């Protein structure tokens, strides 16, 4: 069933992302939007810290889509897992996912989720970074194999879907924005949209 918007928007709203997880999260706000794939090279720069990478890619994605849709309010987002200062991206394959989970077993990992909102027509640009601290349980080879056979999280940074069976891999999650770990921090997104003049629950900044 399609989501019915609570209100008409003064400008088109675009999510600059190919992520099904971010689309599902943004739908929770009951705002009409279009998803447009950003054409961005996501390769980390030499010695670039995970938090810096997540924030840079969020802004770059928003600006790239906004350049093609200058009248729209564009949301860009990116997430990078940080293990002792080293970025962990999307594994892409079962073997890489297995290697990531072995690395994170019994460890503390910070998932940096950036979100940016850009509108070329008004000159609005703002971005924030939301860290989520995750502690993984010590994982056995059997647990890792069982998890990957069921969920196959090869498109998720850090190889674990916390909204699914991946929650069973974890010891704790610490964040002040509960959807950040899934891919889009909705509390911060609402703040940025209101600042950009988008009426969330019928009231804009």
UniProtKB/TrEMBL annotation:
Names of the cofactor(s): a divalent metal cation
Organism superkingdom: Bacteria
Protein location: Cytoplasm
Lineage of the organism: Bacteria, Pseudomonadati, Pseudomonadota, Betaproteobacteria, Burkholderiales
Entry GO CC: cytoplasm
Name of the molecule in the record: 7-methyl-GTP pyrophosphatase
Broad enzyme group: hydrolase
Native source organism of the sequence: Caldimonas caldifontis
Coiled-coil stretches: none
Keywords of the record: Cytoplasm, Hydrolase, Nucleotide metabolism
